[in-house]
Amino acid sequence: MLDALIPAFLRPESASVQAAKVDAIFIGLLLISSAIVLLVVGLVVTFAIRFRRGSSAKRGEMPSLVSREFEIGWTAATLFIFLFIFWWAASIEIGAFSAPKDAIEIHVVGKQWMWKTQGPSGTREINELHVPVGAPVRLLLTSQDVIHSFYVPAFRLKRDALPYQQTETWFQATKTGTYHLLCTEYCGTDHSRMLGRVIVMEPQDYAQWLTKQPERDGLAELGERLFSERGCSGCHNAGSKVHAPSLAGIWGQSVPLEGGRTATVDEAYIRDSILQPQRDVVAGYEPIMPSYEGKLSDGEIQALTAYIRHGTDRFDLIGSLNLAPAQNICAPGETTQESAPNQSLRSPAMVPGAPASGDTPP
Ligand code: HEC
Ligand SMILES: [Cu+2]
């Protein structure tokens, strides 16, 4: 509504819920500043004319009302305006950190000089990101080398992608279309060519696009492979002789730690468990897990995290869009006719440490 005050050719494209809020702040600040400029310039001009040399305007002491009550009044008003602006901008900035629970999760890895993205159903893209309109999308960012920054001007979205760390942000697109994706942190020779596109689609088109993706082997499946290749399964699987906790279903749970503390299992906790296992030791276990610092890339840690979180999340995406169930969303080599209705929701074999129940003969 406020943005109607700015002529269309001066208005940058705005295509997300966040963009509308950021624009409102911008226009609000513009209005407040304009009002103050008008007031100050107006007074300067008025007084310059009224008290010009030779005019008969009254000069001398100011009335005490002006020098005291007015002074307090405008100091307080300015303070309130500043506090209000701070609250307004800060609340929107803080909101940019916490995505709604049902958001679609997309992993983004910055790399000299490209953006690699991976959606929850294992769709991989380079310098492109397809998302549905009207659905919240949570981005989990990291970098493979130097600091990059993920920037989509039309969404007023900007968040750094840092090596050895995961940052996050979220957006909700409000208009279909193709939008610029830029890196906005100078990251080397080809920084200026680290460009991409965000393609916002109607939910039906998006669902269709998803099913057309050739590669259905997802992050979680890669994680599953790493889990055995890197020896995690040797300790963590059910049949192991080593006394290590089962990782099945731990996502989102709270875990008792040595020393009486507890921790909630999320990305950061799993990352720390893998890289600094001595830091938070699970109560009742010996700190025998080796650190994988330097042995696993960020991408591999994301894959392992996705696997621990259980691979079936990959197929919840369509459900979260509130679409009619699409027939062709199922694991490779599986048809919906054959599988029991609840089987596509949770496949036990995808949970770390769980026996592969599908293989056991009746
Ligand atoms: C030598 C055996 C061993 C290996 C190999 C091992 N772990 Fe562990 N892991 C443990 C033990 C023991 C604990 C519990 C004590 C602790 O927290 O350090 C543990 C704890 C964890 C936790 C926290 C579990 C919880 O319930 O909160 C996670 C997550 C984890 N490991 C993931 C992995 C991953 C991923 C790998 C492979 C990259 C791996 N582990 C390899 C023995 C192992
Ligand atoms: Cu960059």
TrEMBL record:
| Annotated Gene Ontology cellular component terms | membrane
In Gene Ontology terms, what is one molecular function of this protein?
Answer: cytochrome-c oxidase activity
Query: Which GO biological process annotations does it have?
Result: ATP synthesis coupled electron transport
Could you tell me the membrane topology recorded for this protein? Multi-pass membrane protein
SUPFAM superfamilies recorded: Cupredoxins, Cytochrome c, Cytochrome c oxidase subunit II-like, transmembrane region
Specify the Cytochrome c domain's residue ranges: 218-312
Keyword rRNA-binding included in the entry's annotation: no
E.C. no: 7.1.1.9
Q: Which compartments does it reside in?
A: Membrane
Enumerate the cofactors the protein uses.
Answer: heme c
Cytochrome oxidase subunit II copper A binding domain boundaries? 101-212
Residue ranges with Polar residues bias? 334-346
In residue numbers, the region (Disordered) covers 332-362
Q: Which UniProt keywords apply?
A: Copper, Electron transport, Heme, Iron, Membrane, Metal-binding, Oxidoreductase, Respiratory chain, Translocase, Transmembrane, Transmembrane helix, Transport
Organism domain of life:
Bacteria
The main enzyme category here is translocase
Residue ranges of the TM segments: 29-51, 72-90
Name the catalysed reactions: 4 Fe(II)-[cytochrome c] + O2 + 8 H(+)(in) = 4 Fe(III)-[cytochrome c] + 2 H2O + 4 H(+)(out)
Checking Pfam families in the record gives: COX2, Cytochrom_C
The answer on whether this UniProt entry bears the keyword Nucleotide-binding reads: no
Q: What does this protein do?
A: Subunits I and II form the functional core of the enzyme complex. Electrons originating in cytochrome c are transferred via heme a and Cu(A) to the binuclear center formed by heme a3 and Cu(B).
* Protein family (similarity comment): Belongs to the cytochrome c oxidase subunit 2 family.
Q: Per its record, how is this protein called by name?
A: cytochrome-c oxidase
* Annotated source species: Methylorubrum populi
